[in-house]
Amino acid sequence: MTDKxxxxxxxxxxxxxxxxxxxxxxxxxxxxxxxxVVACEDVSQDMSIRCVILTGAGKGxxxxxxxxxxxxxxxxxxxxxxxxKDGYRNGIQRVPKALWNLEVxxxxxVNGPAYGAGCDLAMMADIRIASTKAxxxxxxxxxxxxxxDGGSWLLPRQIGLSRAAEMTFTAExxxxxxxxxxxxVSQVVQPEDLMTAALELAGRIAKxxxxxxxxxxxLMREAxxxxxxxxxxxxxxxxxxxxxxxxxxxxxxxxxxxxxAVFNGD
Length: 266
Hints:
Elements: E1 5-10, E2 13-18, H1 30-45, E3 51-56, H2 67-72, H3 81-90, H4 94-100, E4 106-110, E5 113-115, H5 117-123, E6 127-131, E7 135-137, H6 151-159, H7 161-170, E8 174-175, H8 176-182, E9 187-189, H9 194-206, H10 210-223, H11 228-242, H12 246-257
Parallel strand pairs: 2-3, 3-4, 4-6, 5-7, 6-9
Antiparallel strand pairs: 1-2, 7-8
Helix pairs in contact: 1-4, 5-6, 6-7, 10-11
């Protein structure tokens, strides 16, 4: 595991921190891609994890692509058109697949600029909290490329087609206050309060039963592309499974007995 991604566990919460602050945390390096994919796999397999916080070290959330590698045409940017296509498929495109399909809820704690693939990385989360110093830019055209990491699929689903088009076609940054107005983030806090706010929200999520959290997220993901009738069938099947769990019994009993519930994932 590379030290470019730090993984910490706080009870039922996992914190993933991009750790290349001198470069504003690019995510196109192959070892960063691999670390993110492995971290997502590990979290999905760890039933003790009920929420994930994704953030960046230093002053930036993520600069997206490594500009030095673009300039030198190295890494995923090297070779002819077919080589670049394969580089993207085997590199950065693995990240949206891993994060979007991660079973547990994900909070992006956006501490600073989230540009290009870094902006799209934030869109892969379920919830975004921004520092007042955060900015978001879908600025691929500014460097003469297009969103190669799924941004054209992710961004409209978070803020609607018109605003996603404005961000994509102008490549202009959106500051935290406008991001809040647009619904791109759910709250904006002072920089020193960002991780406190993220951990507090993660704690409110993590107090709930883990299997039910995962199934709830899966239903929301599937609802983006399913018709109502098949989604209702899936919900009915999931509900039948939930009713058989000890955590369901504990939840009901705790409400009746007016006490805090203790969930074990059973």
